[in-house]
Amino acid sequence: MVSVVETPTSPTRELPIADRRVRRMQRGDKYRLTAIGGLAALSLDALTSVAYGPEAIVLVLVAAGAAAVSWTLPVTLAIAALLLVLVLSYRQVIAVHPDGGGSYAVAKKDLGRGASLLAAASLVVDYVLTVAVSLAAGAASLASAFPVLADHLLVMTLSGLAVLTVINLIGVAESAKVLMGPTLLFIVSILAMIVVGLFRATPVAVIGTDLGPIVPVDTVGILLLLKAFSAGCSALTGVEAIANAVPSFRTPAVRRAQHTEVALGVLLCTMLLGSALLIGRYHAVPRGGVTLLAQLSAAAFGTGWPFYVTSLAVTLALCLAANTSFGGLPVLLSLLAKDHRVAHLFALRSERPVFRYGVAALAILAATVLLIVHAETQRLLPVFAVGVFIGFTISQTGLVRHWRTQHGPGWIPRAMLNGFGALLTAVAAVVLLIEKFREGAWLLLIIVPALITLFARTENYYRSVADQLSLGRIPTLPSQSPDQEPMLIVVPVVAVSEVTARALRIAHAFDGEVVAVAAEIDAAATRRLSKQWKQWDPGVPLTVLPSPHRSLITTLVGYVRTRTRTGRQVTVLLAQVEATRWYHRLLHNPRGPVLAAALRARTDAVIASLAVRLD
């Protein structure tokens, strides 16, 4: 009888993981956003709209004369009310759809396939244009302060785009750290301008050239106020970005994203209303060579160092506002990839975690737009805000249907709130489209349907692939015929060497018939190879294939196709030398990858690769 005595084991200390990449993956939450980091990384697009939103309102109102500028505050109050509705709505979107996606996720769940495709297309347009407009506006603002840069707008915008792309490829949390300082400086500068300006009875300084008396060409009425409201609604672009990027936040992601959304709403509302009050207080009208925000800054601070700090803060914030899209579009593309509506590679995440293919795609598309318009902001504005208001309307409408379906506590007030918001954003979208149609908004009637078609055709392709591969279904077991020939393992040979020896050893591990083949491209070289093969005698005959076209690829492909045509299973084992250093790899013949690509494309054989690594 054998007795077993159990001895107590002392607790062992868990050894640290050696692989730095695995350690990073395990603590991946470190590379996500806090609420404050989210405000810096995802809110600059919305916050910097204070630089052009109030000015857009004034530019519409002055058509009725300088006195009509007094309507800026009432119009801004209406926009602030819509902002409140949108913030409350997107807090609900964040809670209902914690995986991100914003209006796309809402439409997909509550409105169906067509509405979700429209939401996705409009969001893609908005994100790409946000990058282009922000960088172009920032470059123009910098050129206003330093006229010597006026002829280099495109170079400046592309350089800024490259910097943002690199930062976001490193990680979204790292981008938040970089943006924290400029965001804080921008917020403090604008709030200080408002507070100081409200305490001044008259402007300290007036900058810009007088454009002369303003001749009224319109009257203040419902139509003009609607135009001013729709133009000012460009200040609301970017409000949805936080809801689209909920997965980028640290745990608990929903609560942090909601806090960030509320903080964004409070700050933006304060800045818009404060700017509107200053416009009314100083009777600010457009002047030559300066922006309206610059006029307000000069009126509050004069032309001393606070004015220049504010101007530089606005310029830097406008350039960095493009980062909002880098936080939102890659997440949206990852959701589209999971739904099989874009290429699946957009769902891949790196160790940080970052959707690097989405970041790269956004950079390429934005650079293309900037090159087409030569970094001219005014050529982008007509199509800038329409797309985002389509998304606003879809998300609001989808939430109305969501509350009607769920019938949870308080669903009626929530549905009424979202219904009112959907009505306001729909009106704004229609008025914007009509007003800006001739200036370039008609392009949306081409771009959005084209994107919808692309998404739909991609989804149809993946559905066809799934049907052919029986994805989601249990396949039938393959039948094995008793008289079926054994598998043929083909080993291409160009010389007798250790590479060939390793390939033959691996080939013998397969259960099948091994054959070594060589193409007779050079008769003398082939004779030497045959002589060396006989001397070596590895136990596998060498088959020399005639090659009238002196092409190894054509010869090998023809031989393999002949063998597979009879129904025999063929495996081609390709040995490839792998150098340690990248520059040494350039010195080796890329025969293996070229052969593999040709065999995969033109035969039904199984292609196996063997890497022979050099020290």
What does this structure look like?
- Helix 20 links the parallel strand 1 and strand 2.
- The protein has 2 domains: 435 residues, Amino acid/polyamine transporter I (Up-down Bundle); 127 residues, HUPs (Rossmann fold, 3-Layer(aba) Sandwich), CATH 3.40.50.620.
- Strands 3-2-1-4-5 form a 5-stranded parallel sheet, sandwiched between helices.
- Helices cover 61% and strands 6% of the residues.
- The N terminus is likely disordered.
- It is elongated.
- It is an alpha/beta fold and 615 residues long.
- Helix 2 packs across helix 12 and helix 10 crosses helix 18.
Helix and strand topology:
Elements: H1 20-26, H2 35-42, H3 44-47, H4 53-61, H5 72-96, H6 103-110, H7 113-145, H8 153-170, H9 172-198, H10 222-232, H11 241-244, H12 253-282, H13 292-301, H14 305-320, H15 323-338, H16 356-373, H17 384-406, H18 411-435, H19 444-469, E1 487-492, H20 498-509, E2 512-520, H21 523-536, E3 542-546, H22 552-565, E4 570-578, H23 582-585, H24 591-602, E5 606-613
Parallel strand pairs: 1-2, 1-4, 2-3, 4-5
Helix pairs in contact: 2-9, 2-12, 4-10, 5-10, 5-12, 5-17, 5-18, 6-7, 6-17, 7-8, 7-14, 7-15, 7-16, 7-17, 7-19, 8-9, 8-16, 9-12, 9-13, 9-14, 10-18, 13-14, 15-16, 17-18, 22-24
The strand order across the widest sheet is 3-2-1-4-5
Please indicate the percent range of residues in DSSP E strands (runs of 2 or more): 5-15%
How is the main sheet built? 5 strands, parallel
- Percentage of helical residues? 55-70%
Q: Characterize the overall form.
A: elongated
| Domains (count) | 2
Q: What is the terminal-to-terminal distance?
A: 55 Å
Quaternary state of the chains: single chain
CATH topology of the largest domain: Amino acid/polyamine transporter I
Number of helices: 24
Order of helices and strands: HHHHHHHHHHHHHHHHHHHEHEHEHEHHE
Summed over residues and divided by their number, the pLDDT gives a mean of: 82
CATH class of the largest domain: Mainly Alpha
What would CATH call the homologous superfamily of the largest domain? Amino acid/polyamine transporter I
**CATH architecture designation of the largest domain:** Up-down Bundle
Annotation, overall tally of beta strands: 5
